[in-house]
Amino acid sequence: MALALTVLLAAGAACQSKDHDPSVEPGRPAPSAAGPPGFTLVASGDVLPHSSIIDRARFDGGGRGHDFRPMLAGIEPVVSRADLALCHMETVYGANGRYSGYPTFKSPPEVAQGLAATGYDGCSTASNHSLDDGAEGIRRTLDAMDRAGVRHAGSARTEQEARTVTVLPAGSAKVAHLSYTYGTNGFPLPQGRPWAVNLIDQNRILADARAARQAGADVVVVSLHWGTEWQDAPDDQQTALARTLTAARTGERPDIDLILGTHAHVPQAYEKVNGTWVVYGMGDQIAGEMFNHQGARDPRGNQSTLGRFTFAKPQRPGERWKVTRAEFVPQWFDVDAGRLVNLNQALAAGADVRAVRDRIRQVVLSRGAAKDGLTMGR
């Protein structure tokens, strides 16, 4: 588990697999590029504990609270081997057994312990559910993540915290993690706390990214809670913002090195835009049985990907850390068993999951990412 560093934002910043599929990479983590100085980053989608998920964690806890570790165990080998692992914590935490699912979520704080045990180093926390329990919900969530040793970005307890960008070490690199959401489901920002949740604003995002870089970040990763729910394709706002953010440069160096998207509930495409990888939507990593806007049970809501990116250290100071290997790992949350499944590992073990694995692959590669080197890993 990586230790964490923080730097203050500049004052000027706005307030082949065993089933013989040749497209599957071998079952090992991506090697660090350029020897020891490189690093591998993995990132996954929304952790969204519905009431059924809370009940399962209580059962797995055996009467001793809530245990989310068994739920996540299927992906732990991939996550724990990465130099840096990031998740998206979509909900806030409750207290004293007062927990709830949709529509206003209050999750057990033991979620943070489960994420830490799985190997996650940090999570984005800016989402449309960030204010489901007001400022107190944010405080409880970030307090619990601090106790578990999981770093966070996107929401804040104090103005000072809001102006401090999270920077995590990964190999010899310092990686800044920024997080923003399109909105908060109509809940207003708490009175006197306009900084409590980061909202998407392209000028603010670029100012924060540049400030993080000026303060010493080698790699800047931006998590965006965006897009249209239940839509496989990224919407026009996503693609437009992705073009703008990836086009921004300071000198010869891009201001942002990787964009990670969440919110749509379904896996969306990966695409290299202006030389930078964009994951439009990773899908829900953990969620209960999902129903779409037509009220129909929609299995896509329990499908997701984990992105894995290997970065190489530049040969000369001041140059960009480049992604030398890009992969996606298809996942599925089995709501009946209450377990997260690595689909390629399950397929290799004989499970009948080829159809769902192949559907996810088709979506992920729908914007031509294969030609830019994206492969499917295990």
From TrEMBL:
Output the SMART domains linked to this UniProt entry: PGA_cap
> One Pfam family, short name please?
PGA_cap
Under SUPFAM superfamilies, the record lists:
Metallo-dependent phosphatases (SSF56300)
Keywords for this entry? Lipoprotein
Q: Where is this region: Disordered?
A: 17-39
Q: Work out whether the entry's keyword set contains Lipoprotein.
A: yes
Q: Establish whether keyword Lipoprotein is in the entry.
A: yes
What spans are recorded as compositionally biased (Low complexity)?
Answer: 26-38
Describe the family membership recorded for this protein in Swiss-Prot or TrEMBL. Belongs to the CapA family.
Spell out the protein name for this chain.
Answer: Lipoprotein
Q: Which organism is it from?
A: Streptomyces lincolnensis
